[in-house]
Design goal:
By secondary structure, the chain is mainly alpha-helical. The chain has 28 helices and 2 strands. A hairpin with a 3-residue loop joins strand 1 and strand 2. Helix 5 runs parallel beside helix 8, helix 16 runs parallel beside helix 28 and helix 22 runs antiparallel to helix 24. It is globular, with a radius of gyration of 26 Å. This is Terpenoid cyclases/protein prenyltransferase alpha-alpha toroid. InterPro entries: Terpene_synthase-like, Terpenoid_cyclase/PrenylTrfase. One of its GO terms (biological process) is diterpenoid biosynthetic process.
Length: 664
Amino acid sequence: MNLKIKKVLNHFKNKLIPLQKNKNRKNKIVSLIRSPVPNDKNQLSIKIIKYADELLSECGDEICPEFFKNPLEPARHSNDITNDSDLIGYGDISMSPYDTAWVAMIPDKIYKESKSSKDFNLAFPQCFIWFFDNQDANGSWAGNGAGSIAPGLAGLLALGLFQSRSGEYFETKLNDLGITIERFTTIFEKAKNFLQNTLNEWNIDDLDMTSFELTIPYHLSALAQLEKPVVFKFPESQRLLQENRRKLGLIPLDTILSQQYSTITHSIEAFCEKINLSRIQNNAFQAINGSYGSSPAATASVLMHAPKWDDKAFEFLKKIISHFPSYVKSHGLVPTLSDIGIFETIWVMHSIGDLCLKIRASKNFNDKSIINLFTKNLAFIKYLSELNKIQGGTLRWTSWDNRMPADVDDSVVSNWLIKQFDPVSTIDLVIIIKTFYNGKYFKSFPIERTFSVSCNVHAVNLLILEYQHAQSKRKKITNFSAEKNGVTKVMLEEIIPTVIKFIIFQRKENGIWLDKWNKSPAYTTFKANDLLLSLQSYRKLRVKSGFATNVTLRDYCRKTVDWALNTQHEDGSWGEPSSTGPGNLEETSYVIRLLRTAAKNWRDDKAIQMALHNGKKYLIKNLDESMTDKGYFHTKQPFLWINKQLYTTPRIIKSSILTSLWED
C-alpha cells in the first residue's frame, strides 16, 4: 500500500469513524476503500463521485488556487488580514434585474459633483442599455407575479431618473447610447403598464422577499418624485404603507448606524430618503472588497446618494460587472448577492458531507475515487474549523464582507459538519444558544422580522448530534476556556423539544412546511420530516416533543409523505415548471431525499418505491447536462431562493441532486 493511501487511511481512522471503540476499525476502513460496487449501480455511482469531486474542486479553486494544499490560509485571509480590495468574493449565483437597475441609476463622478444636465453621463451605461435589450414581451424584466414587482419598479426608476437628470439634453444623451426617444417611450410605457396590472392583482401576503415592505414603498415614492412623476394606485397600497410604517418602527436606525455588523446595510437603498448615507461610508460598514452589505443595489445606492464619491464602491461594481458570465446576460449584469462564498461552501458541503456519510456506511466504492473525494471533503472541514475558530464560534454567509453579522444557519450547519467528520472536535454551543435562541426558537439573525423553519431544523440537528455524544460520554457537551459551564444534556432535553414543538406548529394543513429562504415547500419539508423521524432513536426527546410512541410519530409524518406522493408529475419530477418538464431538478432532489428516509420507515410501501424510481429516472435523464452546462440552472430551471428578488445557486442544487441519487 503506497504512502498516499496510508496517509488517507490515517485520516479515515482519526476523523471519519464514529467515536465508539472498535478493534476492527482499520480493517473496516480498508474494506470500505477496496470493496467494489455492484455492477448494476457502478456507472451511476462513478458519475456521482466524479461530479461531486469536480464540484468540490470548483469551490476550492474559487476560494483559493492553493486551497487543497493549505485550507487554513484562505480561512485566515477572509478575515481582513491583508485588507485586499481585489477580492470581490465568490460563488455561482444568478444575475439580478433589480440590482442591475440600481447600478444603471448611478451617474458618473463628474455629474455627481456638478449636478449639471450638460455633464450628465452614467457610470455604468451598459447596465442601462441592458433594460432595452432584455425586456420581456409583457413589459417585465423578471417574469410574472409578485416577485417581478421590485425588479420592475427599479428598472422603471432607472429609466425615469435618466430622463430627469439629462433634462434638455435627454435626446442627445439617449442618442449617445444608441437609443431613440421612440424606443425609450415604448420600453417605459410597457414597463409601467405591466407594473400597474401586476400591482392591481397583488396580495402582499403572497410576497415575502427580503425587506420588500421597505424596498417597494421606497421605489413607489421615488417614482412619484420624478420630474415627470409616475404614480401607481392599487388595492393593497394602504396595507403596504401600514406594513412599511410598522417595520420602520421596529428599526432603531440611530442605534444601528452608531455600530457595525447589521443586516440593514444589505438593504440600505430602502433608506435613501431616511438617512444621510455618509453615515455608513466608513470602515464600520464598508467591506474590505468595497461593497456594502454584499449587495450591488446597496453599494450602488451609496455611490448615488452619499455626498462623497466612493472609489472603493465604484471599483467593486466595476469588477463584478467585468466578471459576469455571458451565458446569463438575459437576467442582468450583476448578481443579486456578491458574494455568497461561505454560504455556498457550507451548503455544498452539507449535501456532499451527507453523501460521504452514505458512502462510508455502504462501503462499496473503489479506492482512488473515494480517497480523492474524502480527502477534499476533509480539506473543507479543516477550512470550516479554522473559520469557526477565527470568527468566534459563529459564521457569516459572506467570504470577504467581514462587516456582515453572523447567522444561525451557517453557524450550526458548519458546526454539524465539523462534528460529523472530526468527532473529537469541541464546538461552542453556548455562544450559538446565547446569540440566536430566544427561548422558543432560533432566530436567523439577532434582529429579524420573521423566523425560518429550515434554520431551526438545522439548529436542532446540531443539538441532537451533541446530545448523542453526551449520551455516549455521560458528561457536559462543551468545555471551553471562556466559561466553566458548558451546555448540559439536561439543557438539551429542554431546548430540543421546545424548538421541535415550534417546528411542528408551523406545519400546514396539507403536511408541508414553508420557509423564508427558499420558496419551494420541498426544501423545508424534507428537512423537517427527516428531523422528526430521527426522534425515533431518542425516546426522551420524542416523548417530550409530544409523541408517546414511534408509531404515533410515524403516523404524524406520514401525512407529509403522502403529500410528496400526491404531488409528483407524470414525468417523475416535482415542483414548478422548467425547461426539462412540468417540474424541476432542485425540488425533485429534495422530495427524493424525503422519500428515501420514508422508504426506511415504510419498507413495504410500493407507492414510495415507485415514486422514488420515477423521480430518480427523471434526475438521471438530466444529470449530465445539468452538471456540465454552466448556464443550465441560470436559464433552464426556476429561481427558488429568496432575497430582494428570487435567485438560484447552481452548485448548491447540484450537490443536492448528487446526494439524492446515491443508493444506500
